[in-house]
Each structure stands twice: as structure tokens, then as C-alpha cells.
């Protein structure tokens, strides 16, 4: 099975970083968040990826073109223009990098990679979110449902503590720190899709989260896999710092690989 990763957006809410690199290449622990997402899938046996490039997509292509050398020790003999690799390091991945357009919406990007999927079931997620989700269980759930699409529902953590103002309106009776109990249930990405969904996308201007998903829901073809574990996207610098602190502290829940 292939995993498709949407990696072409502008990332305007974290423009402090995306002015230099595309959002999926913003690093957590010295590695792009795109690498972290791919490691999650690979830990569950999925190592064939299709990356939907757009904004600064050439930098994503360069990252993978130079991946082996970036992660290996090697000696360059300038007199012969030869390279001797001393400590090869790579991943057993097959990565297809597709230019899906600078202005394409999420649906348009998905439509453009249809030739790389064929008639097979495939996974899809966004290039800015990590989780400790069990991909194998997600796929099994999707197959049990017999639908065209499955979306993962997650609880977005509340950003602020909660005040208990019951009783005397001029006094605080209690306080609870922010938690997932205060957040909303949202689309966490990590979809499993049948190739029939391509027929629901008109073209580059189609937003996946609008007409296609609404049609699937209205026709009973969208099931929901509820993930109660860890999930966090990287939408802002604050989100990046949260993930970086977890990684630095050795407590990154999405680090499910060995």
C-alpha cells in the first residue's frame, strides 16, 4: 500500500520558517517533520510514498536526492571526482515526488497523483501532523467498514486552562489545566481511501475537505476511526516548539520506530 503525503501548501501561519523552506521540511530534532511522518508509516510496514509537492517543492526533491549523502560518512577524492561511502545510511523507502502545482488546492493535489496510485487502496495524510496512531488498525478498520473513505478523528488539545465559575459569580471555585477534554474533535488526517474518490475531485480548484468529503459523508461512504492517543499538528511556531520540547525531553509519543 502507498501513503500519499500532502506537502505543497504555503504554510502561511508559520511564515517565519516557510519563508526559507516548505513547511514539511521544518525540522524537529534535526529532521524534517515530513521524515517523522514517513517513519510513522514505515514502522507499520508502509514504505512506498507519494509526496505531493508545490510551494518550494524543489527543496523537497533536493532533500531526497541528497538523502543518502546527507546521512552517510564519505570521502571525496577531488582528483578523480569519486566518492567513497564509509558509513552508508538510508531508509528502505520508495519515494515518488510529484509536482502538483503551486496554486492547487488539497483536492487538486490528490487528483494529480491518481496515475501513481492505480486501482489500489491508499493512505493519505497531511505533511505537518504526527501521531502515535496504529496505521495497521486504521487500515483494518477501513476494510471492515466497506466504504470509500475513512478519516481519523482526534481530539485537539485545549489551549487554555478551564475555570470553574459555578456558584458565586465573583469567585473561582476551581481550575483545570488545558487538556484534550477541553478540545474539539477534528479531522486529524491519516485517511484510508479507495481509488473511487478520485472521481469526486473536479480539478485543481477543488478542496478535499469541502465537496469530496461532504459528498462521501452525505452518501454514507465516509467512516470515522477514532484515535484517542497522541496527535499534534505543526501549524504555528508555538506548535513547533511543543513538538521540539517533547523530542528534546525524550518523550515524543509519535516516536514509535526503533
From TrEMBL:
GO terms for biological process: O antigen biosynthetic process. InterPro entries: G1P_cyt_trans, G1P_cyt_trans-like, NTP_transferase_dom, Nucleotide-diphossugar_trans. Transmembrane segments: none annotated. Residues 2-206 form the Nucleotidyl transferase domain. CDD domains: G1P_cytidylyltransferase. GO terms for molecular function: glucose-1-phosphate cytidylyltransferase activity. It holds the Pfam family NTP_transferase. Keywords: Nucleotidyltransferase, Transferase. This is Glucose-1-phosphate cytidylyltransferase. It comes from Loktanella fryxellensis.
Amino acid at each position: 500500500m502507498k501513503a500519499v503525503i500532502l506537502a505543497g501548501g504555503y504554510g502561511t501561519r508559520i511564515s517565519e520558517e516557510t519563508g526559507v523552506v516548505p513547511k514539511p521540511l521544518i525540522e524537529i530534532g534535526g529532521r524534517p517533520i515530513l521524515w517523522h511522518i514517513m517513519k510513522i508509516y514505515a514502522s507499520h510496514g508502509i514504505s512506498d510514498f507519494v509526496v505531493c509537492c508545490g510551494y518550494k517543492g524543489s527543496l523537497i526533491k533536493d532533500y531526497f536526492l541528497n538523502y543518502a549523502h546527507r546521512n552517510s560518512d564519505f570521502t571525496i577524492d577531488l582528483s578523480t571526482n569519486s566518492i567513497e561511502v564509509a558509513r552508508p545510511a538510508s531508509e528502505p523507502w520508495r519515494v515518488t515526488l510529484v509536482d502538483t502545482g503551486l496554486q492547487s488546492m488539497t483536492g487538486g493535489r490528490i487528483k494529480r497523483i491518481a496515475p501513481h496510485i492505480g486501482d489500489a487502496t491508499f493512505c493519505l495524510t497531511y505533511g505537518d501532523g504526527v501521531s502515535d496512531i496504529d496505521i495497521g488498525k486504521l487500515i483494518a478498520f477501513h476494510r471492515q467498514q466497506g466504504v470509500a473513505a475513512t478519516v481519523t478523528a482526534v481530539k485537539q488539545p485545549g489551549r487554555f486552562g478551564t475555570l470553574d465559575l459555578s456558584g458565586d459569580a465573583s469567585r473561582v471555585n476551581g481550575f483545570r489545566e488545558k487538556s484534550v477534554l477541553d478540545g474539539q474533535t477534528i479531522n486529524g488526517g491519516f485517511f484510508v481511501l479507495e481509488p473511487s474518490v478520485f472521481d469526486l475531485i473536479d480539478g485543481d480548484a477543488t478542496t478535499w475537505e469541502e465537496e469530496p468529503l461532504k459528498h462521501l459523508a452525505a452518501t454514507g461512504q465516509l467512516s470515522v476511526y477514532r484515535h484517542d492517543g497522541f496527535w499534534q499538528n505543526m501549524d504555528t511556531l508555538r506548535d513547533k516548539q511543543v513538538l521540539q520540547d517533547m523530542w528534546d525531553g525524550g518523550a515524543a509519543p509519535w516516536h514509535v520506530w526503533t
